[in-house]
Amino acid sequence: MIWSEVEMDQVTDLKKRFQESGGSSEAFESLGRGGLGFAVGQLQDGHFRPREAKELALRCFVPNALVEINCYNSRGRSQGEEVLIFEKWISKSELTFRASHLVASNEYYEWWATHEAN
Questions:
Q1: pTM higher than 0.70
Q2: By Cβ atoms counted within 10 A, which residue in 8, 11, 13, 104 is the most buried?
């Protein structure tokens, strides 16, 4: 995910407000990782390596973890990337879960995620 200058300014402002309210820099940096270190993050392609992708998801998708996903439309064409906050598993066997959308790199997908997605 490539963040725009405006998005980075928003993150910087959020961090500043977090610290002004008594939060530490370390606590801010750990937000959204569900207690996992950055070294745990990996990229796994579920289309070509479904077993490995499922194992990674089951290990890393914990409440409040930030997850970056590649998005595709029904024709298999790339819709860019999305960042979401994992909330909870609905079904681990089917890899269905509830999450909150944060941002998408594609304007159409951003609109869809904030207006149409359930």
A1: no
A2: 104
